[in-house]
Amino acid sequence: MATDDETAQIHGWFSGRLPEGWFTGAPEIVRDREEIAVLGTLPDLPDDVPEAERAALVEGLARRFREETRERRIEIAREAERKFRQKVSWGVICGGETVMFTTLSVPVMTRLRQTERQVLDTLVAAGVARSRSDALAWCVRLVGKHTDTWLADLRDALQHVDRVRSAGPDVNS
Predict the structure, then answer these.
(1) CA-to-CA distance for 127 and 88, rounded, in angstroms?
(2) Which tens digits make up the pLDDT trace of 133-156?
(3) How far, in Å, CA of 33 to CA of 71, rounded?
(4) What is the pTM of this model?
């Protein structure tokens, strides 16, 4: 888990490094152990866009931003990767939709009992997933989607624990 100081340093660095005009406000920085994701909000869609055109417009705006900023984003990402020793991924928020351009897919190891493996095997047999690995990723996305508020509260509590821990006595001296 990143400390508040590390998160603030990374957020400040990207806010100072990104060209003005790319996003409508400060970028959202999401960091875990392997990756720093930079998400910027593009200008709002016009109110009169028909629903049938909405998804195509979001896709087009995101794709245009991606192509027009590619070289500069790569340069900034390389610099950040050297400085923070983590991979950088990019995405935009447009019309309330999040479109990621690049993300890491990191393997994780887990041990499952037979009843848990049967859940994954059922998803594979039903064609919901191609493999147990895909089925497990599907399950994680589903849980994340349906427990956003609870997970956000849990992350806030962990940040509070980090702040309290960092304010405590230094036991290493």
Answers:
(1) 32
(2) 999 999 998 888 888 888 888 888
(3) 26
(4) 0.70
